[in-house]
Automatic annotation (TrEMBL):
SUPFAM superfamilies: Cytochrome c (SSF46626). GO terms for cellular component: plasma membrane. Binds 2 heme C groups per subunit. Belongs to the CcoP / FixP family. It comes from Roseibium aggregatum. C-type cytochrome. Part of the cbb3-type cytochrome c oxidase complex. FixP subunit is required for transferring electrons from donor cytochrome c via its heme groups to FixO subunit. From there, electrons are shuttled to the catalytic binuclear center of FixN subunit where oxygen reduction takes place. The complex also functions as a proton pump. Residues 111-200, 208-289 form the Cytochrome c domain. The lineage of its organism: Bacteria, Pseudomonadati, Pseudomonadota, Alphaproteobacteria, Hyphomicrobiales. Heme c 2 binds at residues 175, 221, 224-225. Heme c 1 binds at residues 124, 127-128, 266. This is Cbb3-type cytochrome c oxidase subunit.
Length: 292
């Protein structure tokens, strides 16, 4: 409360004080600006009007619904249901159409790309990146180095069943651990790694017998990667002449992969996403421009 006994008129401003004083500073009793008071009163009036028109006050088990009966929850649910209904029309068409037909039908293609982009961001981007550029251990979806093929059908199969995912129809291609399981000696691993590096345009160790490395390659690696080192898509064996190596393109990385390989896993989406979404993802990923 103001100390009425200490009220006085300030000699400089001519305004009465409130009676409050701090360290010799006296508080002036200036009135609030009229514009501020009018705005404050207008807010009070608006609040009362809002209470009448819209839901506002909580009750024991419900709330006041307001004269207008507005309900954002109901409106949001209605909008969601409409969106699902509109989407289902195109989704049914996507499921019924072939991947080639979707790619040539502008209306279906536009929907598939938009739907696929949303699904990619939710499910694929954490590994492959938002633009599909990948990272070490996660394939770049924009280049032409596709271990299992980059056609629409190839991509669709990979999306459905995954790679080493545990699904009965998953793509499976595992590289043996030649060093860890003692299938090759350390010298043989060094020889074959240097042979592959020499063919891939990388620097090699001095004094290594590359001819012996080729013999090791022909006996242990050519069956999957091909005699020409260009890989075999049917078994998921990558080209060793590619500009991109999934786990790093260097002599040390090649040695590490031969010794104790990393075999990545891609989930099977057939049980997680509906058929329309998988087809949309297929078309969207293919639109990156990689593959075939």
């Amino acid at each position: 409360m103001a100390d009425t006994h200490n009220k006085e008129v300030d000699q400089i401003s001519g305004v009465e004080t409130t009676g409050h004083e701090w360290d010799g500073l006296k508080e002036l009793n200036n009135p609030l600006p009229k514009w501020w008071l009018y705005l404050f009163y207008a807010c009070i009036v608006w609040a009362v009007i809002y209470w009448v028109l819209y839901p506002s006050w909580p009750l024991v088990s419900s709330y006041t619904t307001g004269v207008l009966g507005a309900n954002q929850r109901t409106e949001a649910i209605a909008a969601y249901d409409k969106g699902i209904s509109d989407r289902s029309v195109f989704a049914d068409k996507i499921v019924a159409a072939s991947l080639e037909d979707i790619s040539t039908d502008q209306e279906l293609l536009q929907f598939a790309r938009a739907n696929g982009q949303a699904a990619f961001g939710d499910n694929c981007a954490p590994c492959h990146g938002s633009g599909g550029t990948g990272a070490e251990g996660y394939p770049n979806l924009q280049d032409d180095t596709w271990i299992w093929g980059g056609t629409l059908d190839n991509i669709h199969t990979t999306l459905e069943f995954g790679i080493r995912s545990g699904h009965d129809e998953a793509r499976i291609g595992e590289m043996p651990a030649f060093g860890r399981d003692e299938l090759l000696s350390r010298e043989e691993i060094n020889q074959v790694a240097n042979f592959v590096a020499s063919r891939a345009g990388l620097e090699t160790d001095e004094g290594v017998d590359l001819a012996a490395g080729q013999t090791v390659y022909d006996d242990n690696c050519a069956a999957c990667h091909g005699e020409d080192l260009k890989g075999i898509q049917d078994v998921g064996a990558p080209s060793l002449l590619s500009a991109n190596y999934l786990y790093g393109k260097s002599l040390d990385a090649i040695k590490a992969q031969i010794n104790n390989p990393r075999n990545g896993v891609m989930p099977a989406w057939v049980d997680r996403l509906d058929p329309a979404t998988i087809k949309s993802l297929t078309v969207y990923v293919h639109s990156f421009g990689g593959g075939q």
